[in-house]
Design goal:
heterodimer; A: Rossmann fold; Rossmann fold; 4-stranded parallel β-sheet; 10 strands; 9% strand; B: Uridine Diphospho-n-acetylenolpyruvylglucosamine Reductase, domain 2; Vanillyl-alcohol Oxidase, Chain A, domain 3; 22% strand; globular
């Protein structure tokens, strides 16, 4: 097998094999070298040097990675490991050794319906029944697939909050397509590019300048991957991309938003795509404190935060592994004696609630904000 | 393979467990890869693996985090790698200030728990974020704290070791420390720890001679010297702006008149000595122990190589000098540049020094590293008559030691 990607080809030789990346959540559970970031790098080096022709088991082990970036945060030689994993996965796809069966199925389903959940495209905006949206505005709410089909309370909370605050925005309903995150993470870049084009054209048509999303996966993809894809495909990229926590923080700081206070004790789970991928750590905590919550930290927090276990295609392809990782995070949360966990990503909420089996409840920050928001000076009566 | 003991024998896992951090040129072609990888979960598993290996006459090679570069974990003749990852439990005897640890426990995990109890390790390796208790004892390394407390072996009071005869608890640490598992597999270690004390790091821009005087005229906990070239390399990869001068960092509980801010900056980076690999990408290392009064001369003699050096001071007026020559490992010239490692060792020996460790590549140095080498050899033959415990390491035999001897000629 050839490994042509220049980033992968260069960076594997930078690795010192120090194993500081043993913090990897998948390795912590499975313990085998082939699942460790160090092992994966050495395998890529072996492929480049012609010492290994990876078989199915080897490729499977390579995909037992949530692309959470814990390895990148501790890497002694500062290797951009998230990019290396994603680019190497794309090479596996190009060489016919991937996608893995479930990832391929997600692709087939998404190609047909515009989402990886196999739901009908026409029902993407069903959660929004009862709300009215303008056909065009400078800001668009990008709900994402998980909030549209599985965690609809997040989408509703976001829209209600935006309406409360008198924010002028549009929503694309069934014309919104998957951002492509599951496919970029699993090496299936071509379909992500198709979704990019569809979303991009929709935003241009609606006169959008700012994209706001509640989903950390969508946020990372649109804020970080889309500009690169746009450059690659020759599209002009001048959109501002924000997560809802940015918007909420801005409103609070601008004196436009107060909250009905709570005395609850909460702990914040940093979504990998918001935290390590995009370095957003303080905003959600500051918002929670403004709401009166006592914010207690888990043992691993911010840059060292443990992954929920769902990302990078792990939840879909390796459900048991995802659950084991999720349970470790839940155990950390339980040790804080928090009343509940707060996160800022529908996928984290979905997965941690499943892994927690009711031991502790996980809520999204936008739900809390919407419930307790007291808009000030919005111009609305 | 052995019921209840985690095991894998697919090519990938065997391939991945058949190397360490080193990337030596050419010689690798003489290495076999492991026949399988065991991950024992308890001492009884280790005994069962040993029994199985003895019956089949197959080598067994213990493996910690494989963060050393002497080839100690490489299954040169094939065999079973015994990866101690799952044996990572440890207890802390607070009153006795003793750590009781399984071999797979990671130093920094231990340190975090010790700190919660107001205790701290006396010594730890600069690879503490990943390296293991068993691995470092089997290497008998020096590191942080070695100025006050010496090598790790000097802080181990008792070992529990498995060999083909069973399990043995011993205070004869020298029969195992630095011997890379060639005389038995460590299953538990008792290690002295100390009370946690607030300390500060102080930087001094001084020559190597002055550094030696400063270090050994005080009773500091730890001391690290970085030469100008190494600082220049670090600056270029860390995006730091450390003054590019020879610099000594002393860590002490006493207030010293050095630069505290710079001292702390350099001290915080002590866990990242190999960050400069990005400059190659690739590095050729040379690691020696020399008498401290010859440090300046040693650094002077290797200065023509454009390598950067960091020096850890050790009690008994010794120092461990780790020098790095960045070089692109993909280039044909990489092989030729390995002469640096050989020349550096020769230079150190001329100055009364020796190799830092033995392992596979430098097994011919064992006689100089271990004062009681002949006793150790007798012990090896007694406990391992079929030479199955990590063969070819420490006790030289076979083609590798011949090749290394040949390299020394050039």
């Amino acid at each position: 097998m050839k490994m042509d990607n220049s980033l992968v080809n260069n960076e594997v030789f930078v690795c010192v094999q120090c194993h500081y990346c043993r913090v990897c959540p998948a390795y912590s559970v499975l313990k085998w070298e082939s699942v460790s970031p160090r092992g994966r790098i050495y395998m890529l080096k072996g492929i480049i040097k012609g010492e290994i022709e990876p078989d199915g088991e080897a490729v499977e082990d390579f995909y037992k990675c949530t692309t959470c970036g814990a390895c990148e945060a501790v890497c002694q030689t500062s290797i951009p490991l998230i990019d290396v994993w994603e680019r190497a996965r794309a090479e596996f796809v190009n060489s016919g050794k991937a996608p893995l069966p479930v990832h391929k199925k997600l692709r087939d389903v998404a190609k047909k319906n515009g989402n990886p959940y196999g739901e009908k495209r026409g029902e993407r905006g069903r959660w929004a029944e009862g709300y009215e949206f303008k056909s065009g505005a400078e800001m668009i709410y990008f709900a994402g697939c998980t909030a549209s089909y599985r965690m609809t309370e997040l989408a509703r909370s976001t829209v209600e909050f935006l309406n409360k605050m008198g924010i002028d925005f549009t929503y694309a309903e069934e014309d919104e397509h998957c951002c492509g995150s599951p496919f970029l993470r699993t090496g299936q870049r071509d379909i992500a590019y198709q979704f990019f084009r569809k979303n991009y054209e929709e935003w241009r048509e609606r006169g959008v300048k700012t994209i706001v999303t509640t989903c950390s996966g969508c946020y990372r993809t649109i804020a970080k991957d889309y500009p690169e894809i746009a450059r690659e495909l020759g599209y002009k990229w001048d959109f501002k991309v924000i997560h809802t926590v940015h918007l909420i923080k801005e409103l609070v700081d601008g004196g436009k938003l107060e909250f009905e206070k709570s005395n609850d004790r909460v702990t914040f789970h940093d979504p990998c795509h918001l935290g390590r991928h995009m370095k957003v750590y303080d905003e959600p905590r500051e918002i929670l404190r403004k709401m009166g919550y006592e914010v207690v930290e888990m043992e691993h927090t911010k840059e060292e935060s443990l992954c929920c276990g769902a990302g990078g295609g792990v939840k879909s392809q390796f459900k048991d592994l995802a659950m084991e990782i999720g349970k470790i995070r839940i155990d950390e949360a339980l040790k804080t004696d928090a009343d509940f966990v707060v996160s800022a990503c529908p996928f984290c909420k979905l997965h941690l609630n499943q892994a927690g089996e009711g031991k502790i409840h996980v809520r999204d920050i936008v739900e809390l904000v919407n419930e307790r928001a007291k808009p000030l000076n919005t111009g609305k009566t | 393979m052995i019921e209840g003991v985690p095991f894998r024998d697919d090519f990938l896992e065997r391939y991945l467990c058949s190397h360490d951090v080193s990337s030596p040129p050419l010689i690798k072609r003489f290495f076999k890869i492991a026949d399988g990888v065991f991950q024992p979960e308890k001492e009884e598993d280790v005994l069962r693996i040993l029994k199985f290996a003895e019956k089949k006459k197959i080598p067994v090679i213990p493996r910690g985090a494989a963060t050393s570069g002497y080839g100690g974990v490489i299954p040169v003749r094939g065999g079973f790698v015994v990866d101690f990852t799952r044996m990572d439990r440890f207890e802390i005897d607070e009153d006795g200030r003793i750590l009781v640890s399984e071999p797979g426990a990671v130093w920094w995990d231990i340190e975090r728990e010790l700190n919660k109890k107001g205790l701290t390790l006396r010594v730890y390796p600069t690879s503490a974020f990943s390296s293991t208790v068993g691995g470092w004892i089997a290497q008998n390394g020096y590191g942080v704290g070695s100025l006050a407390y010496g090598s790790i072996a000097e802080n181990v009071t008792r070992l529990r070791v498995a060999d083909f005869r069973g399990v043995n608890e011993t205070e004869n640490i020298h029969l195992y420390a630095g011997l890379e598992g060639t005389t038995g597999m460590i299953t538990k270690a008792w290690i002295e720890v100390k009370e946690f004390e607030e300390m500060q790091a102080y930087a001094f821009h001084v020559s190597p001679e002055k550094a030696v005087k400063l270090v050994f005229s005080s009773d500091s906990y730890s001391a690290l010297f970085l030469d100008e070239k190494y600082i220049r390399m670090k600056n270029s990869v860390h995006s730091t702006q450390i003054p590019e001068k020879d610099t000594l960092v002393v860590v002490s509980k006493k207030k010293l008149d050095g630069d505290e801010s710079l001292g702390n900056e350099i001290w915080e980076a002590r866990f990242y000595p190999m960050k400069i690999k990005r400059l190659g990408p690739g590095i050729i290392p040379a690691e020696v122990i020399i008498p401290s009064e010859r440090l300046s001369e040693y650094l002077q003699r290797i200065s023509g190589w454009n390598a950067g050096s960091e020096v850890w001071f050790i009690k008994e007026k010794l120092c461990a000098v780790l020098s790095f020559l960045p070089w692109d490992e993909r280039k044909a010239s990489y092989t030729y540049q390995w002469r640096f490692a050989v020349k550096a060792l020769k230079t150190a020996k001329k100055l009364g020094g020796r190799s830092y460790s033995s392992g596979l590549y430098l097994s011919r140095e064992s006689k100089e590293i271990f004062p009681g080498y002949n006793e150790l050899l007798r012990f090896k033959k007694e406990v391992d008559p079929h030479n199955l415990l990590n063969p070819v390491k420490v006790f030289p035999s076979g083609i590798i030691s011949k090749i290394m001897a040949l390299a020394g000629v050039f």
